[in-house]
Structures are given as C-alpha cells and as structure tokens.
Amino acid sequence: MDVELQLNVPLLRRLVPNLTSAAQKAGLRAATVSNLCTGKIPVGRAEVRTLVALATLAGCSLDELIIRGSGMRMIETGIKALDLLAPVVRGGTVGFVARPNMGQLVLLAELMHRMNKRGYATIFWDPGTDTSGINHVQAQSGFVLSTREEVYNQIVNLREEKDILLGVDRSAVLSGELFSLWESLKEAGARPITAALVDMACEAADESVSEAYGPLDTLWRFDSDLISRGIYPAIDPIISTSTITEGNYLDAAHLAVQQRSRKLLRRYRELRSLVQVHGLGKIAESDVPLYKRGERLEAYLAQPFFVSEPYTEKSGEWLSLYETLDDVKRILDGEMDDVESAELFFKGRLEVRS
C-alpha cells in the first residue's frame, strides 16, 4: 500500500497567519499553496523547493510539515460491533439506514458523546423537526445549528485545530444543501470532516442506498430481528459494511477476524431460523458448535451505551479495537465454548482466564 503524504495545514496556518501573502513574498504562487492546503495538489507531486520554502516560512522541519500515514483510516469508536464489522472512515460519510424506532438517533447521540471524549468537535445540523429522540442528539452535540451558513462558519472556525463529526439529516441531501456545504468547504481545507447521515423520516429503508444517501463510506443498516431480541446496537452484521475493508486499508489481523466473524454470523443466521422452529436437534451435529459460537458472538457484540445509562442502569462500555479483536478471536477459536451466551450479553470485555 502506498504511503500517503499530507500537508500539516493546521500547523502551517498557525505558524504563518498570513500564509498567502507570506508565500507570495517568498516567491511561491498563491494558487499552488492554496491547492496544496486543500489537497487539490497531492504533496507527493509538489516540487521539493516549494515544500522547503513552506517549511522555512513556518520555521519547522519537513518532517513536521509533512504528515505520513495511510490514505484511509478508521475512527475508533469503542463500540465493538461497529469497529469490528463496519468501521467509520475518517473524513468519510456514514449512512444510518433504519425504520422507525430502531435506535438510530440513540446511536448518533452515543457517537457524538464518544467523539466529544476523543477531542472531536461535534456539530448537529438540526433539521427543525420534533422527531422522537432528537433531544438526545442535541444534548450530546457540541454545537446545534439550524442553517447551512451557521454550519459552514462553525466548521471554518473549528477545523484548523480539530477533526469534526457532523450529524445531518437526509433532508439536507434531498434539498442539495449538503452538497452546497461540501462545495463551499473545498477552499477551507484543514482537518477532516466526518459526516453521520441519518434519515429521521425513515423513508429510505426500501430505497437504493446510493440514490437515497449519495456516496457512503460506511453503511450501518439496522436490523429488526436484533431489535426484537433487545440486541443493541442493532446493526445488521452481514449487510453493514465499510469501504475501509477494501484496498488493504485494515490491519491484516483485523481483516482476518472480521471475515471470520461475518462467515460465522452468516451461518448462524441461516441455522437460527431452523432452530427456532424445530429445535437444536434438527441441525447437523457438525453445525451445533458453529451455532453456539454464533450465538455467543452475537451476544458479545451487544454493548451498553453511555447515553443509555439512565434507562438501562448499566454503565457504558468502551473497548479498544485491540480488546475487541482479542475477545472475538477467543470466541471464534472456541475458548469460550463452555460459557453460556447469556453471560456475554450486554457487557464489556470477556473475563481474562488463567
């Protein structure tokens, strides 16, 4: 995988407040500097003398000016099911596909809460509806704004120093306002904006996702069967996905555990319909261990949320990606075969065994 080079724009603008005029005095073209800052010109294609001149202006080294990293990165949410199966792409768009009362706004509120803790700036573009649960999103958002102009100005003010999570309703896609916002922000480049796109009217569940939401980097489709059994977050573990799983952007260990998990859960779901009607004795003996492990994994991926503590009376749980992958691998490998699935349900980490 190629290494991505990015200009450390927040550092550059902080050290050189009047960047355009300073660059011109140093003999650099203003348009070139602007295009480097917004990413229109990749750093890897910039002339070395241009980068050296910018580093000299800022009084920093080239290593400080240029950020090296993978081209696509996941945002760790601490939510097991999401980080394992359908990670959030940093700077991408997450689509919440749900019918009414599936918990999409609870999940958005939880995401806002967790990103606040991680130092993100959180903005909710309020559509002005009285949708049930919207108050939770508003309460967890750092900024609640009503118009595109307000959202634009707030992003410009914050984006030099912080990554931004923007919560927005699908109505802004239909009206064209979200597209207009992205267009206006092209010249205001800095740190990434990650968008969480919800459908408060719940009208798009049966539509083509691409037509209803536009391009998505992460898709979370909510599952009615999980909800009927009280398993949250109720995202479908098979259909929910992320573009970060393509192109070798995931760590090899993560990808291997993810693929094994999907395979197991897919088989578990196929067997479950049969077991529900005829009982465990009606499936092949070789399938029984798979069924039981799928049941354990499904239970393990249920997780208490911080925003739900007043209602569930359970403390919210944060698990690092490493912890989640380690626990899931133990389930997949059969280390937890002597544990009932009920013991894994709605908890954090698995107990460490000697």
From TrEMBL:
<dbReference type="GO" id="GO:0005524">
    <property type="term" value="F:ATP binding"/>
</dbReference>
<dbReference type="InterPro" id="IPR024034">
    <property type="entry name" value="ATPase_F1/V1_b/a_C"/>
</dbReference>
<keyword id="KW-1278">Translocase</keyword>
<keyword id="KW-0406">Ion transport</keyword>
<dbReference type="InterPro" id="IPR027417">
    <property type="entry name" value="P-loop_NTPase"/>
</dbReference>
<dbReference type="InterPro" id="IPR050053">
    <property type="entry name" value="ATPase_alpha/beta_chains"/>
</dbReference>
<keyword id="KW-0067">ATP-binding</keyword>
<keyword id="KW-0066">ATP synthesis</keyword>
<protein>
    <submittedName>
        <fullName>F-type H+-transporting ATPase subunit beta</fullName>
    </submittedName>
</protein>
<comment type="similarity">
    <text>Belongs to the ATPase alpha/beta chains family.</text>
</comment>
<dbReference type="GO" id="GO:0045259">
    <property type="term" value="C:proton-transporting ATP synthase complex"/>
</dbReference>
<keyword id="KW-0813">Transport</keyword>
<keyword id="KW-0472">Membrane</keyword>
<keyword id="KW-0139">CF(1)</keyword>
<dbReference type="InterPro" id="IPR020003">
    <property type="entry name" value="ATPase_a/bsu_AS"/>
</dbReference>
<dbReference type="GO" id="GO:0046933">
    <property type="term" value="F:proton-transporting ATP synthase activity, rotational mechanism"/>
</dbReference>
<keyword id="KW-0547">Nucleotide-binding</keyword>
